[in-house]
Design a protein that fits this description.
By secondary structure, the chain is α/β, with parallel strands linked by helices. Helices cover 35% and strands 14% of the residues. The longest helix has 19 residues, at 124-142. Residues 57-151 form the Mandelate racemase/muconate lactonizing enzyme N-terminal domain.
């Protein structure tokens, strides 16, 4: 058995880094010898209770997924938690179609039952969590990391970005205090995403909460605030700006031009979510990179952005956009158009480590989002030695599947009311 496992690792290692055109050859070849030997017996969920923080004002929860088999192997991953009404129920509603199926037939199981095609039965967030659990399971059955099954890793560590921001951008002292704190954080992150703090009617007569415009005062205050943050940080750290789909196209262009002096890595989600020619106009006019994608369900929704050069960086969330394989295809499509990939990730440590595993297999990759990796309670939901994030990077796990194990006691301490450990 040990010799067989070693030969598998050697076989997969020889294919590391191959192009997307042949990336599934080793997986399909090895799967052929294992076809039909293992069957899915159950799919379970377990919901982690979130906690509010300075960076996440409203507590979220996190839906973990477990796919069990008759061989004793199992795979875990994360589906979208709050805000995501009905995802847990959808997973249990879909469970019956997986029972008795071969867990290695991942593409067929994901695409073959028309629950991801945008029809009235679309259950994309539920299917995404199940799909990633199948990749963890496949890696455990075949005794290789999931990133090896995706074609091999291009990097041994993945850069992270956080949401650690000043209390008041327009107060230079507050920005300096914030920057000093950033420099001392143990995780060493050097990429930070800022929001867009808006005015209110009491201090800005031009502010209208119902339109998509920035008043003249808002625009001036925002640019001044971001310049204060840049001055305090210096140029050793990177800044990102997340807009949450707030603006019309002219406002987006004006905002992007005002940001040029601070050189943000990207301006995220300035326009409404669906594709339109406005995205192309904005990207063509903007002196800073434009980024979007966290709400795409499938690569077909990314396609018009990519083919029309209507963005500079794609930014999908694996829990929204189909898990590993659909997003791998999306990133490969972007790469053909010389567009890099980053990841939205508001999930738990489980989705973070899954995304890191996946990101290692993407050639032109930028960074992965996190709200955690600060040495707190969330990090302890998986077993680890020492800090998970060092110098702003997380090392790619090399164990079978996702290469992680849940810390049972820590998980049990943080379950939502009524939830139980899934043994």
């Amino acid at each position: 058995m040990r010799q067989e496992k070693q030969s598998r690792r050697t076989f997969f290692k020889s294919f590391t880094g191959l192009s997307a055109a042949v990336m599934f050859f080793p997986f399909q070849t090895l799967m052929a010898s294992e076809r039909g030997k293992v069957k899915i017996t159950d799919i379970k969920t377990m919901v982690i209770k979130g906690k509010s923080s300075a960076y996440m004002k409203k507590a979220r929860n996190y839906i973990l997924v477990k796919v069990e088999t008759d061989s004793g192997h199992f795979g875990i991953a994360e589906a979208y938690g709050s805000p995501g009404l009905g995802v847990k129920e959808a997973i249990h509603g879909l469970k019956a179609i997986f029972i008795g199926k071969d867990p290695l037939e991942i593409d067929r199981l994901y695409t073959g039952y028309r629950y991801t095609d945008g029809s009235a039965h679309a259950q994309q967030r539920a299917m995404s969590g199940i799909e990633m659990a199948l990749w963890d399971l496949a890696g455990k059955i075949l005794d290789v990391p999931s990133h090896t099954l995706l074609g091999g890793k291009f990097r041994d560590r993945v850069r992270m970005y956080d949401h650690h921001t000043p209390v008041d951008y327009n107060d230079k002292i507050a920005c300096k205090d914030w920057a000093d704190e950033v420099m001392e954080r143990p995780n060493g992150m050097t990429m930070h995403k800022f929001g867009v703090p808006r005015s209110n009617a009491s201090n800005d007569v031009g502010y209208d909460p119902s339109n998509r415009l920035l008043s003249s005062k808002e625009l001036r205050d925002l640019i001044e605030g971001y310049e204060n943050a840049r001055d305090a940080l210096g140029w050793e750290h990177d800044i990102l700006i997340g807009c949450h789909w707030d603006f019309d196209v002219r406002t987006g262009i004006d905002f992007a031009k005002g940001l040029e002096p601070i050189k943000p890595v990207f301006l995220e989600d300035p326009l409404t979510i669906p594709y339109s020619e406005a995205w192309k106009r904005l990207t063509t006019s903007s002196p800073v990179p434009i980024c979007t994608g966290e709400n795409w369900m499938r690569r077909s929704e990314a396609m018009p952005f990519i083919e029309n050069s209507a963005l500079d960086i794609i930014h999908p969330d694996l829990r929204n956009s189909g898990g590993f394989l659909e997003n791998k295809r999306m990133a490969d499509m972007a790469d053909l158009h010389a567009i890099p990939t980053a990841n939205h990730n508001s999930g738990s440590i489980v989705n973070t480590m899954a995304t890191i595993n996946w990101a290692s297999s993407i050639r032109d990759y930028l960074a992965c989002e996190t709200f955690f990796l600060d040495g707190g309670w969330m990090d302890d939901l998986i077993i680890h030695d020492g800090p998970i994030c060092k110098n702003g990077f997380v090392e790619v796990p090399n164990g079978p599947g996702l290469g992680i194990k849940l810390n049972k006691e820590a998980v049990k301490e943080n379950l939502e009311d009524g939830e139980v450990w899934w043994d």
